[in-house]
Design brief:
The complex is a heterodimer.
Chain A: H1 2-27, E1 34-39, H2 54-63, E2 68-70, E3 76-78, E4 81-86, E5 92-97, H3 111-124, E6 134-141, E7 144-149, H4 156-159, H5 170-173, E8 195-201, E9 205-210, E10 224-229, H6 233-241, E11 247-251, H7 254-262, E12 266-269, E13 278-284, H8 294-303, H9 306-313, H10 343-352, E14 364-370, H11 376-387, E15 391-397, H12 401-409, E16 415-421, H13 426-429, H14 454-464, H15 469-486, E17 489-494, E18 498-502, E19 506-507, E20 524-525
Helix pairs in contact in A: 8-10, 14-15
Chain B: H1 4-11, H2 13-20, H3 27-31, H4 40-73, H5 78-86, H6 91-100, H7 107-119, H8 133-168, H9 173-187, H10 190-204, H11 222-260, H12 263-270, H13 275-297, H14 299-313, H15 318-327, H16 331-359, H17 362-366
Helix pairs in contact in B: 4-16, 5-6, 8-9, 8-11, 8-13, 8-14, 8-16, 9-11, 10-11, 10-14, 11-13, 11-14, 12-13, 13-16, 14-15, 15-16
Classes of the chains: A alpha+beta, B mainly alpha.
């Protein structure tokens, strides 16, 4: 007995020692090495100033620096701007740029480039709300840029960070060509970020190399990043398993995530998706048929079991979502109406609203749409579930994403599963779903529910221009409560984005709010 | 213009053929009496070739028009997919994209505009990648050709060998084994076969890489690079070959059985020739005909099989590009790829005809 205890202590000691060694190793970044990173798709091109989306955003954040960056707790940090200040009236924001920063061709980065970049983004980036209040950018000297606003715009700081606010060289893109079709968007890209482009081969790989003239001394740690484009998710996970791939962000299949968690050398984390903020919801057409009645929407919400979705369908890899703002966001308000599963209540609401059951036990018929394979089982789940409250649901599949997008954006639907991203600040990615004037025929991820509540509009408008963070949080809290009452969409869970990485190789995996679409200058190989 | 290939066909090929087939009567020998002149059969051959090329051109036009219409029937267009990719957009931007790509014109005008461009061999610009479609296709063509041809060669050789082995003892254990193996390969979905091979040979026994055309983490040049690509080619080509292996081995087995029972084989056996000579020199040659015909006919099938295999193995060929451009509603790229692959199929069928004539000189007279 005693010797067994001794053995156990010895074993424990060894394990502790090993852990300490591992910790020490983890703590000291090492220079050098090639990080192999896998993604599922090829970006259209590599210029994030005129192309949104994560496919461009990930390599884009390596190629192009932004004035600011954010840490994992939503705090803005200096990056290309060493400091910044917001005027008391909130109508101008001054950026003080670091000195000695250069583009990859050696040309100095000046305030003129910042001015040019903001103007290019304002004119060509699909997210119009990012710089909509920007009237002008003044450049009193080479290292100072003053952004003049028509109204206070707290979303500006996020719009100046990774994924959204790339600083691009005026001497390359300012030649009069259409920046969206500029040949230098995919070839000979001259960036301002920690890595420069070596090669971009569509559907194969993007190779990035350390830029020795990067303005943060000693960074980046990695010599090279190879981004392998592998379409099939299970193949990516097998590559992580056999060591061919070091890290794979944006993995969203519960099976793949849970499989990786069982592998001793792999870690799957959902840190790093707070800013992207992907939320899955059941959207209602509020202008057509029974779903135009708020009570019907509330009854359906009571019949859809969020707990079952998170635990059984998503295999525990998602978080429950109660509002349109991601649970990892500072603006998320958890204390709203949750519509927990209550079939009796759902039936009672429908009875009271006058939707009597017919001879077949059904009250009315509805279609449920879905646009991609990942939510097929969610759509199928609704059929038996809503039958319990007398709604006859027909599942309508779309052959692919664009077909679905066309149906939904032209309002030809009753209910649909949808995934919408927050894109950092609510002004950029949240308001669009609920504002009356954003119900735009033919535009996907506008207010496709055609929901309209002028009071919600004015609360969102106030929140969008409130520079006091506490007041802003309070305003968004009110808006979320009102929306949960009106229920234009029923938020169920977060898209289970995970970064799967080999923790025996990768040190400092990207875990800031922008995750893998933030600069990887601090990532190193063990 | 008469290609040297056609001339050499009547000069060397058939003559040696006629020697070998001398036991089969005098039909062939009469055809090749004057090998150096344009015999009626050569004229026939040319006219058939011209006809085939003509049909091919009509087919290409039909492919373009039909696919153009199909693409326009599908809901959604490039503006929608760009908006999806971007995670949202704005109606002005979407309208600008449509105007930019001429999608605001009536469909028939778009079609005419496109056809007149293709007539000058200009396949236009990819909506999605904004580069020339011809460049995009040429960039991808080598990878697909490498995959498709190596899979075909593999399937045909292994198929014939298995078929011949099976035919020699048609009810033996080997024959049954070959049949089962071939049918399993044929009936298993190709993406499943692919994933299973990856699990087995990249994960359980990490011998081959999981995906891709080459290892880009290390720079390789010359022979090392070729070896690296071949290393990456093994699993995808086996996967693609597995579908057609059944076809070829069953076909080779059946036609071998047929030929082995024919009179001239019995004659050869009666002459006292060795079993090896009879099987591989006399019988096999004739038994190959249906296999070659089939190889040409299923070439289009191999290309469509490549779409799936390329997606599973992230093999950067035309198949992957096709999938991507269909999903992105990148009309010029899809039409370009379909144009190209129908061109390849037309050429493959033409070549089958030619090879057919080399293997069996009887075709020349009987095709009249």
């Amino acid at each position: 007995m005693r010797s067994r205890t001794m053995k156990f202590i010895a074993l424990l000691g060894t394990v502790l020692l090993a852990l300490t060694v591992a910790n020490v190793q983890a703590g000291t970044p090492k220079r050098g090495g090639t990080l192999i990173w896998s993604v599922s798709g090829t970006p259209r091109h590599l210029n994030p100033a005129v192309q949104s989306g994560i496919a461009t955003g990930m390599p884009g954040a390596q190629l192009f620096a932004t004035p600011l960056r954010f840490d994992e707790n939503w705090n803005p940090q200096p990056y290309l701007a060493k400091s910044w200040s917001i005027a008391d009236d909130g109508l101008s924001v001054t950026l003080n740029l670091v000195e000695g920063a250069t583009f990859h061709d050696g040309v100095p980065i000046t305030s003129k480039d910042v001015q040019f970049s903001i103007k290019t983004i304002k004119a060509h980036h699909p997210f119009k709300t990012m710089f909509a209040p920007v009237k002008d950018v003044e450049t009193p000297d080479k290292h100072t840029a003053v952004i003049k606003l028509s109204k206070p715009h707290p979303a500006l700081l996020l719009a100046l960070s990774s994924q959204l606010g790339a600083v691009i060289p005026e001497h390359i893109y300012g030649d009069g060509q259409n920046p969206k079709k500029h040949p230098r968007n995919s070839e000979n890209v001259v960036g301002s970020g920690p890595f420069k482009l070596v090669e971009f081969v569509r559907d194969q790989h993007i190779i990035l190399e350390r830029y020795d003239g990067f303005f943060i001394k000693g960074r980046p740690y990695l010599d090279k990043i190879v981004q392998r484009i592998i379409k099939d998710g299970s193949v990516r996970v097998l590559g992580l398993k056999n060591g061919e791939i070091h890290i794979s962000p944006f993995e969203a299949l519960p099976q793949d995530i849970n499989y990786s968690k069982k592998e001793a050398h792999l870690t799957a984390t959902n840190q790093g998706y707070a800013a992207i903020g992907p939320i899955v919801w059941l959207a209602f057409n509020t202008k057509r048929g029974p779903t135009s009645d708020k009570r019907v929407r509330q009854a359906i919400a009571h019949a859809v079991d969020r707990n079952f979705i998170v635990k059984a369908i998503m295999l525990g890899s998602s978080k429950p979502a109660y509002t349109g703002i991601h649970p990892d966001s500072v603006f998320h308000e958890p204390n709203v109406a949750h519509y927990d599963l209550d079939l009796d209540k759902a039936n009672a609401i429908l009875d009271e609203a006058g939707y009597a059951r017919g001879s077949d036990g059904m009250r009315f018929k509805l279609h449920i749409d879905y646009g991609w394979a990942g939510v097929k089982n969610l759509a199928e789940y609704l059929k038996p579930q809503l039958k319990k409250i007398g709604i006859d649901v027909t599942v309508r599949a779309s052959p692919d994403f664009p077909s679905w997008a066309k149906r939904i954006s032209t309002w030809d639907f009753d209910m649909t599963w949808d995934v919408v991203f927050n894109w950092g600040d609510p002004v950029i990615g949240v308001h669009r779903t609920y504002l009356c004037n954003n119900a735009k025929n033919g535009v996907i991820w506008s207010n496709t529910q055609q929901y309209c509540n002028p009071i919600v509009d004015s609360v969102l408008d106030l929140a969008g221009k409130e520079n006091d963070q506490e007041k802003r949080i309070a305003l968004y809290s009110i808006a979320q409560k009102m929306l949960a009452e009106d229920l234009p969409v029923y938020w169920t869970h977060t898209l289970p984005y995970h970064t799967i990485y080999n923790h025996t190789k990768v040190g400092n995996p990207p875990q800031t709010i922008w995750g893998a679409s933030s600069p990887l200058d601090e990532v190193y190989l063990k | 213009m008469v290609s040297p290939f056609v001339l050499s066909l009547s000069k060397d090929g058939p003559r040696s053929c006629s020697d070998k087939f001398s036991t089969k009567g005098d039909r062939e020998t009469t055809v090749f009496e004057e090998p150096y002149s344009f015999s009626p059969s050569v004229v026939q051959f040319l006219s058939i070739t011209i006809k085939r090329v003509g049909f091919g051109l009509v087919l290409l036009l039909a492919v373009l028009v039909l696919n153009f219409c199909l693409m326009h029937l599908a809901p959604g267009d490039i503006a929608d997919t760009i908006a999806i990719d971007a995670g949202g957009a704005d109606e002005e931007i979407m309208a600008a994209i449509r105007k930019d790509y001429g999608l605001d014109l009536p469909v028939w005008q778009q079609l005419l505009k496109y056809l007149s461009k293709v007539a000058t061999l200009d396949l236009g610009y990819s909506f999605y990648y904004n580069i020339s479609v011809t460049d995009l296709i040429l960039e991808r063509l080598p990878a697909t050709l490498l995959l498709v041809l190596s899979a075909q060669v593999l399937a045909i050789t292994v198929g014939i060998v298995l078929g011949v082995i099976a035919a020699r003892k048609p009810h033996g254990l080997t024959s049954h084994f070959v049949t089962v193996l071939a049918l399993v390969g044929y009936s298993a979905p190709v993406f499943w076969t692919g994933i299973m091979l990856i699990i087995l040979f990249s994960s359980t026994f990490p011998i081959f890489p999981i995906a891709g055309l080459m290892d880009v983490s290390v720079e390789r040049e010359g022979f090392a690079h070729v070896l690296d690509v071949l290393h990456h080619l093994v699993l995808p080509s086996i996967t693609l070959a597995s579908i057609f292996l059944a076809l070829y081995s069953r076909l080779a087995r059946a036609s071998m059985l047929d030929v082995l029972g024919s009179d001239y084989v019995r004659t050869a056996q009666a002459k006292g020739l060795s079993e090896f000579l009879v099987v591989y020199k006399h019988a096999l040659r004739n038994a190959l005909l249906p296999v070659v015909t089939m190889a040409g006919l299923v070439f289009s099938g191999v290309i469509s099989g490549a779409v799936l295999v390329e997606t599973v193995f992230s093999w950067p060929g035309l198949g992957m590009l096709a999938v991507q451009s269909i999903v992105a509603r990148d009309t010029p790229t899809i039409l370009g790829i379909l144009f190209f692959s129908s061109l390849v199929v037309v050429i493959a069928n033409l070549l089958t005809d030619l090879v057919y004539r080399i293997i069996d000189p009887r075709i020349k007279t009987s095709s009249a």
